[in-house]
Description:
Blueprint: H1 7-10, H2 18-24, E1 31-32, H3 44-55, H4 68-82, E2 92-95, H5 97-109, E3 115-120, H6 126-132, E4 136-141, H7 152-158, E5 163-168, H8 181-193, E6 197-201, E7 226-231, E8 244-247, H9 250-263, H10 269-281, H11 283-307, E9 319-320, H12 331-342, E10 344-345, E11 347-348, E12 360-363, H13 368-383
Helix pairs in contact: 3-10, 4-10, 5-6, 5-9, 11-13
Amino acid sequence: MRNPLSDVIVSMPPSGIRKFFDIVTEMEDAISLGVGEPDFDTPWHIRKEGIKSLELGKTFYTSNSGLKELKNEIANYLQRKIGVSYDANSQTFVTVGGSEAIDLCFRAMLNPGDEVLIPQPSYVSYYPCVLLAGGRPKVIELKRENEFRLTREQLVAAISDKTKILVLPFPNNPTGAVMTKEDLEAIRDVIIENDIYVLSDEIYSELTYGGEHTSIASLEGMKDRTIVINGFSKAYAMTGWRLGYAAGPKLIIEQMLKIHQYAIMCAPTTSQYAAVEALRSGDEDVAHMRDEYDMRRKYLLNRFKKIGMDCFEPRGAFYMFPGISQYGMSSDEFANKLLQEEKVAVVPGTAFGNSGEGFLRISYAYSIENLKEALDRIEHFVSKL
C-alpha cells in the first residue's frame, strides 16, 4: 500500500506542552503549573447571555464572519483599547479561537517559499502553521539580557528578500515579555522599509502590569500592514467557548474569511452572544482578574528570588520564565525530575523553541494555595541539587 500520510505532518513533532500533562492526569497528588488556562469561572453575566441565547432558540448558523452585533462590539473595543478604527463589516471577523485566526492568516497570505520571522520563545502554533501554509519559518532567538523583547538589530539581521510576515507575539507566551511603544517604534521603520506585514498576536493584551498595552497597528503607517489577532479565552476566562477574532486590511480579511467559509462555516453561535456581553460589560471582570494575577505574579517573583532561581520580571500574560541552567540539567531533564520527585508539572522552555533551553514556563493562572504548595515543592527539589 502507498504511504497514506503527509510528509510535512509526519515530520512535525507533537506539542511539547502536552506530554507532561498526560502523565499528571494519572498521578495522585500532582500539581500542574503548565496549562495556560485561567482558574476563574467565566463571569456569570457573560454565561447568562449564552444561556439566554439557548433558551430563546438561537442555535442557528450566524453569518460566516460572525454576528453583526459582535463585530460592531469588536470594532468599538479596538477603537477604545488600542486606538485603531476598523470597519466592523469588512475589516473584522469572528473565528474559532485566536488559533484559527493565526492559521487563516498564514494560509491566506503565504506563497510557497515566503519567509515568516518568528521570535522565539513563543506560542507553539506559529511554526507549524507556517509550514502547513507552505511558508518557511525563520526563527529570531530572543535574549534574556533584552528581557525577551525583539530588538531593531535582531530584526534587521533576520530579514531577507523572501521575508513577508513578522510575527509579533506580545505580551508573550511563555516569557511574559512585553513590547512598549518605544520598542515598537524602534522596529516600525524597518518593517515599512522592507515592505513586511505583521501578524500581531494580542491575546494577552488585557493582562499587562505596570503599563498599558500598545498595538503596533496604532503606530503611523502600520494599520494597513498589520493583522491583529485577539480573543476571549485569556482576558474573560472563556477558554472553552472557543472564540477569537481578526482585524486588519480588507484585502487580507476577505481571503481569510474565504478559507473560514469552507473549513469552519462560523464560530459557535452561543459563544458569540456571550462575547457581546463580555465586550459591553466585562471591563470590571477583567480588572479584577488582572489584579489577582498581579498579586500572584509578585508572590512568585519573591519566592524565586528567595529560592535563588534567576527570573526576570514579566510584564504581561500569566507566566514566569525562570532560568535553571545553574543546576546542570536541560530544561526537559529538570521538568521530568521535578514531576517524578515532587509531583509538580511545568513546561520545559524548549517546548517554545530552542532558545527556551535553560528555562521553564510556569503559569500563575492557578489559585494562590496551589502556587504556594507548588513553590514549596520546587524549593525542596532545588535544595537537593
